[in-house]
Amino acid sequence: MNNQLQELPYHELSRLINLRTLNLHDNLITSDGLPDEAFESLQSLQYIYLANNKLSVAPQFLPHTLRIVDLAANCLTWLYPLTFGHKPGLRSVYLHNNYLNNTGLSFDAFNGSDAVSTLILSNNRLTYVPQNLPRGVVRLHLQNNHISRIPKGALSSQGRLRELYLQNNYLSSEGLSHPTFSKLKSLEYLDLSNNNLTEVPAGLPANIVILHLGRNHLKGLPPERLSRVRGLQYLLLQSNALTTSGMHPEAFAHLRSLHTLHLYNNQLDGIPPGLPRRVRSLMLLHNQIARIGLNDFATTYALTELNLSYNRLYSAHIHRLAFRKLRLLETLDISGNRLTLLPAGLPTSLQVLNLQKNQLNALSPERLVNLTVLKELHLAHNRLKISSISPGTWHELHGLKVRQEGTGRELSSSKVVLLWIQDRQKKMHGEQQVETKPLQDQVALGLGFVGLITFGLGWGGTTPNRPCT
Length: 469
What we know:
two-stranded antiparallel sheet
C-alpha cells in the first residue's frame, strides 16, 4: 500500500496460497495491470483492499472465500457477475467514489452473496436504486448519486435493512411508489435529505428511529403520513417550504417517542399546532414566526432546548405566560429578533439565555428574578446603555459564568456578572455607536468583568478521488 505499483505481481502472489489479507490501496494499479487470473490461486483470501487505485473495471474473478472487498475511489464503470457474486461469506463491499451507473452494475452482481451486510455505493452515477441487492444487507449507502426513482419492488426483499442513506440525490415524490419502504420492517435510519420530495413518503415502516427529510420541498404535514412511525425519536424537517397552516394539528399525534424536532429554515409564521408532547429539543430558528400565544407551548412539558432565533418576534407579541409550562427548559435562544424587553415569565430552570442581536433598550430585575441557575447570558448587539440597567438586576444571577474572550478561561462568582453590552465598534448598517461608560462606572454597578462568551464553528470536508487518467 501507499506505493507506486501499476500492476499486480501475480506470479509472485500465486505461491501465497495461505494468504488471507491483501492490502494494495493507494497505488496506481490499472485494470490492465490486474489480469483475470491474478487471484486464481489465492483460495484462502478473505480481505482485499484495492481502494484509491486506477481500476476502470472490477476484477472479473475474485476468490469465493472473501469477506471484505474495498474497491473505493477508483474509476470503476463495470462489475462482472463473479466479481462479488457466489461468495457466501462476503460481508462488506465498498464501492463508493467510482463511476458506476446502473448498466455497469448488473442485475446478477450479488447473486449467491446474500450475507453481505454492508454495501457502500455512494458517490457514483446511479440513476435509480439497483434491483436484486443482497437480501442480508443491513447498511446501504446510496447517497450522492443521480437517483430520481426507486423501482417498485427494488427494496422488497431487504427485510434486514436497518440503515438506508439516500441523501443528495434527485428523488421526487412521483419517483416513490406507495410500498417503497413498507417492506423494510427493520429500518431504523432513513436519510432522504436534499432531494426533490414535495410530500412525506407514504408507507414508512414503524421502527424508524431517525428520519431525515431536510432540504426538500415539503409544504405540509398531513396527519396520516407519520402516524405509523410510532418509534420515531428524531425528525429532521429543516430547509423545506413548510407553513404553519400546512401542518395538521394531528401530524405528530402518534409520535410519543419523538424527542428531537428540527423545523428551522421553513416558512412558519407561528408556532406549529399539536407539537409532540415529549419533545425535548425544538429548533424553530430562521422562520417568520411573529407571535407566541398563551398555549403554544402548553403541552410540551419535557422541552429542555428551544431555539426561536432569527424570526420576527416583538416583545408585545410574546404572551407573558407563554413559557409557564416549560419547567425543564435549560436553553432558550431568541437572538436575532426584534425584542425591546426581556420576555416575562422565563422558566427558572434556564441555564443558557441568548438574546443577542435584538433591540433591547432596558433591563430590570423582575424579568431575571429567580434565574438562579443561569450560567450564560448573551446580550451582545443590542441598544443597552449602563443607564438603562436598573439597580439590583443581577442580584439573583449567582450561577452566571464569564468566559474571557481569547483565553477560554471561565470566571464564576455570585457577585461577578458578564454582560458584553456592546462591541465598542459601530454597529452594522451604519447605526450610531452605543454610548460607552468607563470601566470603573461598570464596576460600580456590579459589573466585575467585561468579556465575551464565544463559540467556534467548523465544517468538514471530503478528500477527492485521484484523477482517472
